[in-house]
Design goal:
17 helices
Length: 400
């Protein structure tokens, strides 16, 4: 009983700190200003935060059905099934594989002596074993199809919702009249659906095709959900909706380009990749830092003042921008190499020999042919294959 009382006191103390008004509001403002006393003005409430949780399960269910339908169509229309050879069970090789998927020559020589297998047989075993762990193309195609569809639909809905809103054109209107900002029904659902989607995306990160920027995506999703939480609780929904809309511009283009790559439509893939780069520069490298972050840093202060959450909010926004710059750096490297080599990119700046080996065959000639396969003749193919870019996905892209 005494221990339970101590835990209750601890939670109460934490709650007093987390919900303290000095953290959330500038001077002279309290939680009373967030109450809905005007029948014509609806302000966000903490009880609304349950809606994204419910929508998370609904969206996950819709995604499951959607991907099964896409998988059925993809296998039959685009012939995306890729049967892989299974490596025979070998405990000695499995033990080495668990430590290093691509062993060096000396290791292979030692394994040859231990197992009485030829060097070529061991190399073939490791190649087949790596291929077993690779994500099937049909799975990646389904994931990209889902994200492309969602991002395209939600971007259109966001434009429909915000088109007649004054803060879409003048960012200073995100702060004028705060906290008496009305959250209309369309804006409420836009925010709730986006939050539900990012919740589902955060959970699916651990079962989706895993890329090399896995940790960056975890940081990205936590920053996104954190921003949505803080902006909802403080009624900063206006600026939050702008951030969502801006990030949804590039995401469907990127996912569409991936889909084109998977079905080997290289011309379409290249065109979409160029469009994606231009959109990324315009939205995430220009509008986001110079309009949105500028507004939260400088335009907000004269209108609402400064509180502790002001620093938290801007820190999370800047974190997203740092991720944008990191991803854009690798996009530029890929684009530069594609231009220099006349559109043929053989290796991503963050790729490894393992990636090349995965595509190798049992003989050198076939390996060389696969390395020069047309699917590798554009930057996007390498970006997706090695997981260099995933815009909110970069994609996942979308962000708040």
């Amino acid at each position: 009983m005494a221990r339970e009382l101590k835990m209750a006191d601890l939670w109460k103390a934490v709650g007093n700190i987390v919900w303290n008004e000095w953290f959330w509001f500038p001077e002279k403002y309290t939680w009373d200003c967030m109450k809905n006393t005007n029948p014509n003005v609806y302000k966000p409430q903490s009880s609304d935060l349950w809606m994204p949780v419910y929508l998370c399960f609904v969206i996950t269910l819709i995604r499951t059905v959607f991907e099964r339908v896409v998988a059925f169509v993809g296998e039959r229309v685009f012939d995306l099934r890729q049967p892989t050879k299974t490596a025979p069970v070998n405990p000695i090789l499995e033990k080495v594989y668990a430590k290093k998927k691509t062993p060096d020559n000396s290791t292979i020589q030692d394994l040859s002596k231990q197992t009485d297998m030829k060097v070529r047989q061991i190399e073939r075993w490791f190649r087949h074993r790596r291929n077993q762990d690779r994500t099937p193309v049909i799975k990646k195609f389904c994931e990209s199809s889902w994200r492309c569809t969602y991002y395209a639909v939600i971007f259109c809905y966001g434009m429909y919702t915000l088109w007649d809103k004054e803060w879409l054109w003048k960012t200073e209107m995100c702060w004028k009249g705060w906290p008496e900002h009305h959250v209309s029904a369309d804006l409420y659902w836009y925010y709730a659906i986006q939050a539900g989607f990012y919740l589902s995306l955060s959970l699916s990160l651990f079962v989706d095709h895993k890329r090399k920027d896995f940790m960056e995506m975890i940081v990205h999703h936590f920053a996104t959900l954190g921003l949505m939480f803080f902006s909802w609780m403080n009624n900063f929904v206006r600026v939050g909706s702008l951030v969502l809309l801006i990030h949804d511009c590039a995401d469907p283009i990127m996912e569409a380009a991936k889909m084109a790559k998977y079905v080997k439509k290289d011309g379409v893939c290249n065109s979409l990749f160029v469009l994606f780069i231009l959109t990324w520069i315009a939205t995430r490298m220009t509008i986001f830092p110079f309009r949105i972050i500028y507004s939260t840093l400088f335009e907000a202060v004269p209108e609402i003042g400064i509180c502790f959450v002001y620093y938290v909010y801007n820190t999370l926004l800047i974190t997203l921008q740092v991720l944008h710059i990191i991803w854009f750096y690798f996009i530029v490297l890929i684009a530069k190499e594609a231009i220099i080599t006349g559109g043929q990119v053989k290796k991503d700046s963050r790729s490894s020999d393992e990636t090349i080996s995965d595509d190798s065959s049992s003989n050198g000639k076939e390996c060389s042919k696969r390395r020069e396969h047309p699917i590798n003749k554009n930057g996007l193919a390498q970006l997706e294959q090695n997981g260099t870019v995933n815009p909110l996905s970069c994609g996942d892209r979308g962000d708040l």
